[in-house]
Amino acid sequence: MEVKQYYFSNFRARLNFFIVSSFLIFIFLFFVIFSLTWVYKSKTIIEIVDFQDFSAGSSNLTSSSISSFLGQSSNNISPTGKVALQLLESKRFFKNIYDIDFYLGATHGYKRFNGEDIFNKKVFSSSSERWIGEEKPVFEISWKEFNSNLKYVVDPKTNFVEISYTHQSPKVAQRILTLTINEINELVKNIELEKSQKVLEYIERYLLEKNSTAIQGNLKAISMNHLQKITRAGSTNNYVFEFIEPPTLPKFKSYPKRLPMLLLSLIFSFFLPILVIFLDIKFKPREFLISYKDKYFN
After folding, report:
1. What 3-state DSSP class applies to 81?
2. What is the pTM assigned to this prediction?
3. How far is CA 257 from CA 34, 145, 174, in A?
4. How far is it, in rounded angstroms, from Cα 211 to Cα 192?
5. How many CA atoms lie within 13 A of 136 on its CB side?
6. d(Cα 64, Cα 4) in Å, to the nearest integer?
7. CA neighbor of 37 nearest in space, from 143, 113, 110, 136
8. Digit-coded pLDDT (tens) for 226-254
């Protein structure tokens, strides 16, 4: 009789444990999920501009057209394009963003009903437009946050690049993404201009010292290539990245996906207590029966 009472009382206790623990776990996860900050994702599609070799422009165009016609991959990102993609993650490039965008790190939310950003009052005063305490967030922290929010994917078939930036404010996400493309174009252009100018200065000095006709012909060809680069740089702002689709102003929140997270929480809060009860059933009855046998049958 005691064994039956034991199992019956334990069944009620475990049922109560299951109901209470499942409820508490779900409520806890519910509040955790709804405490997560909404973020918005702005996206843009860009083309990597390739004008490295003007002298061979027609032949490059022909081969590229043939490859496209045959359906072959044109994974031929120019050296300048590869440099630009690497610079996106560098501190050297982010220094430009950090210096230009005064509000970087000041906003941490967005009011959808009036379209205004929510400023972090602990570090920034929106009324006086001044930072509280330090002038701006620490550079290293801002750089790490920028890199974690900025993502890009290169399409190997077209060499188009999809770049996205996530932020608590959709306006900030769009502004930072636009600024990123403009500044990377400016930075790479200045780097390439500096290189070309140094090459031209060296060639000019070399030609003054040497009189070899053969060497002069080769150097003039090199000079022409670098002059074309300088001309191109002066005639366009899209030096390496050109917008196919400008940065979007997201209207809908991108993360967190609360409905799937709530469903997972419901499943988790249901199965975790069952697992605990299963472990309890596996070990405790055996101990009870052994003690019961020793007490009444020995």
Report:
1. helix
2. 0.66
3. 10, 21, 21
4. 29
5. 15
6. 83
7. 110
8. 777 777 777 777 888 889 999 998 888 87
